[in-house]
Each structure stands twice: as structure tokens, then as C-alpha cells.
Design a protein that fits this description.
single chain, alpha+beta, D-Maltodextrin-Binding Protein, domain 2, 2 domains, seven-stranded mixed β-sheet, 35% helix, globular, EC 3.1.3.25
Amino acid sequence: MSTLLSEEKIVPFVEALIVEAGDKIRKRINESTSYEMKKNFADLVTAVDQDLELFLIKELQNRFPSHYYLTEETNPTQTVEKDSNDQFIWVIDPIDGTMNFVHGFNRYAISIALCKGEEIILGFILDVNNNTLYSAIKGAGAFCQGERIQVSNTSSINNSLLALGFSAEQWEQKIDVVSIMTAIAGAARGIRITGSSCLDLADVATGKLDSFFHYGLAPWDMAAGSLLVQEANGICTGMKGEPNFIKSNGILVTNGHLHHPYIELMSRHV
């Protein structure tokens, strides 16, 4: 990885690219109310999502022509495999929080991660409205605007603030929604459902949140953010503690102190 980083100067290139992409979104904010539904009424896509994804792929392909792409709108079936150790794959979400974007709720982000085989080695998240850039390098730390970040030290669920989210299918069909809320109500200090898993992950990495969990996420929803959390000394697993959270049914993210307590709490209710 060090050769890739030093010879091709990949980090400053991607940082400049994601900032440029954020500028493009802000210039098209008036188009946010025009959308299409995908799986159901809670799963939306806009022309801005689609155009931005094509822009990012084109720019990265020009710089790295031998790399592959796993993206929400145009390449959703590309896989991240353990056996493909020499294969570089870019995992991209052009707008994480499309529903927020459509409704004018200013919490959405761009997420770009680079995997080598199954290993996530770089992650970048841009909070579009605040123009705040988060980045992580495998083995070298996590950063917000170039400053190193760290998860919280909260050690009790009673003192914790967490975020959660539901898949579009869960929300429409009310699958586990009531049981999940019942498990957390009265246990944690508070719950936030913000509509952007990438920014929720970033908030765990900076210590603003103590935990985050979500069922039904795709790799582009969590690849960059999970590396951010891990490099900030947090823990990411599946909901039952599975190490390969990218391929699990859900992701549980904590500051580390709260991980097993949350696994135990959720196992009693879901």
C-alpha cells in the first residue's frame, strides 16, 4: 500500500476529487426534488446521484485504468473478494442520504473507499453541507480536516448516544422496527436516526456518537466509514459480532467499550 500511496499520490488526488464532487452537488441543489423510486417509496435516486457517480468513476478510471468499481447506481454487483488480493476496487456512494437531499434536510455525504481484495485500505467521506472532509488510511490513522480523530471513552450504555437506521424494506414492512426501538428505549441516553450512515460512522469516529448500528447496508454505505472508525480505535462487526461485517446482514459500530454490551442487549430483543 505504501508504494501505491507514495508513487501515485493517491490520497491528495482523491481528497481534491471528492471536494470537487461536493461543489458539483451544491451547484445542483435546486434539482434535488426531482427523483425516482427504486425498490420502494423509501428508496430514492436523483439525476444528481447518477451524474456524480459517473463523474467520479471517469476521473478515477483516467488515473487508475486497471482498477474496478463497486458503486450504488451503475456497478452494484461488483464484489469485494478475499481471494482477489491484487485487485483494487473503488467503492463509491455519490450521495449517502439521498432522501435527506430530496427533502432539503442538510445531512448527506459523498463516500469513496479503496479496497485491495477484501481489505479496505483508504476511506474518504465528505460532509457536503459543512464541506468537512474525513479520511482514513489503513494503519496510519483517521482524520477530520487533517486533524487526527478518536472515538469516545463512554463505557456505559446508560451514558451513550447512538444512531441507528433501517433498510428501505424494514421500514416499509416494519420488520424489527418496533423490537429494535424497544431494546434501546430506556437503555441508552438517546437515539438519533439521521438518514446518513456515512456521517453517522464519521460521528462515531470523532466521538460525537458512541455507537451506530444498521441492518441491510450495502458496501458503499459503510466501507469508508468503517475504516474511519477502526482507525480512530473503534470496533466494527456484524450485529452478532461477526468480523466480516461487509457481508453480514447488519453492522454494529462502537467505541469499543460498548461493543459487547450492545451485542448482548440486541440479542435479547431482536
